[in-house]
Design a protein that fits this description.
Elements (H helix, E strand, L loop, with lengths): L5 H10 L2 H4 L5 H17 L5 E4 L8 H4 L5 E6 L2 H13 L8 E4 L13 E6 L11 H11 E12 L1 H7 L4 H8 L1 H10 L1 E2 L11 E2 L3 H7 L5 E9 L7 H8 L2 H14 L11 E8 L1
Parallel strand pairs: 1-2, 1-4, 2-3, 4-5
Antiparallel strand pairs: 5-9, 6-7, 8-9
Bound molecules: S-adenosylmethionine.
Length: 277
């Protein structure tokens, strides 16, 4: 099945406010957030015009508004965009967002070419494009200026398999062995191979992302594993969350180990920072 925007739109319209609490109501979410913030703080500068794609309810919008000169916030889901506005209003930050637009990553043609210094597309918008992933990458490259950067986060296949291992057996029961093999080997949860959910997406390995970004116009400047230690599981992390000294040590290790090349595929999200040549 090719990409059809109606599925991610419907999925995120129905999720509603869950997107706002995604990174605070779990310890693995907290660790994931810390790495994203480290990357954003290292690469987003106060002088920049920034485009946020797939901004959701605004968990990063609320940070980006204070980090750049101009911020345009976009998402494919009307519901997420309106939650984003509501959340920014409650935080007194709505006037810091320059513009909101309902936009699909596969078509950014309504934006002025090369008009942004940076694009932030994290939390997996690219993971919904299926056969249009390269189109999405190209659209971002058209929209950022030469020398500008793109912070790109996708869902990790290996981390998902580890964390959701208990679903593998029911998956085989419901979808059969061949479709389970397809899911594990390709990371693709598509219509042809699954009838249980309309959450069609592509969980990726670093090999998938490296292939997508293997372009003359792209220089990869950083790769990070975000949410690596989340693999310990919520019970184990909750047991130490109350001990501030110990939790800070874990956060410190999450940040350091997220930089190791060998960690990359184990993070919940694979986070790439690329520069347009
Ligand atoms: C997991 S949420 C991430 C939200 C936010 N970036 C974050 O990290 O908290 C994914 C977001 O991508 C949006 N999205 C999915 N497909 C998209 C597409 N084709 N174009 C733009 N946004 C899309 C969804 O509506 C949703 O808000």
């Amino acid at each position: 099945m090719g990409y059809d925007p109606k599925y991610p739109r419907a999925h995120y319209d129905s999720l509603g406010i869950e997107e706002w609490t995604r990174l605070t109501n779990s310890r693995h979410g907290e660790l994931n957030f810390v790495v994203h913030m480290d990357v954003l703080q290292n690469h987003i500068e106060g002088s920049m015009a920034v485009l946020e794609i797939g901004a959701g309810a605004g968990f990063y919008t609320k940070e980006l508004v204070h980090m750049c000169r101009r911020l345009v916030v976009t998402d494919i889901s009307k519901v997420q965009l309106s939650l984003n506005q509501q959340n920014m209003r409650e935080l007194g930050a709505l006037n810091l967002v320059d513009e909101y637009r309902e936009l699909d990553l596969v078509d950014l043609s309504s934006l002025e070419p090369e008009s942004f210094d940076a694009i932030v597309c994290v939390g997996g918008p690219l993971s919904y494009l299926l056969d249009k992933e390269s189109v999405g990458v190209q659209q971002m490259l058209n929209t950022v200026r030469p020398g500008g950067i793109i912070v790109l986060g996708v869902m990790s296949l290996i981390n998902s398999v580890v964390r959701l291992m208990h679903f593998i057996s029911p998956t085989k029961k419901n979808r059969g062995l061949a479709n389970t093999r397809w899911l594990l080997e390709t990371g693709l949860q598509d219509r042809e191979h699954n009838t249980e959910t309309e959450h069609y997406c592509h969980m990726m390995t670093s090999a998938d992302v490296d292939t997508l970004l293997d372009l003359d116009s792209v220089e990869v400047i950083e790769k990070r594993a975000a949410g690596l230690l989340g693999m310990a599981g919520e019970n184990a992390l909750n047991a130490i969350r109350g001990d501030v000294e110990l939790w800070n040590l874990i956060v410190d290790r999450e940040l350091e180990w997220s930089k190791l090349p060998s960690s990359l595929d184990l993070g919940e999200n694979l986070l790439y920072v690329i520069r347009k040549r």
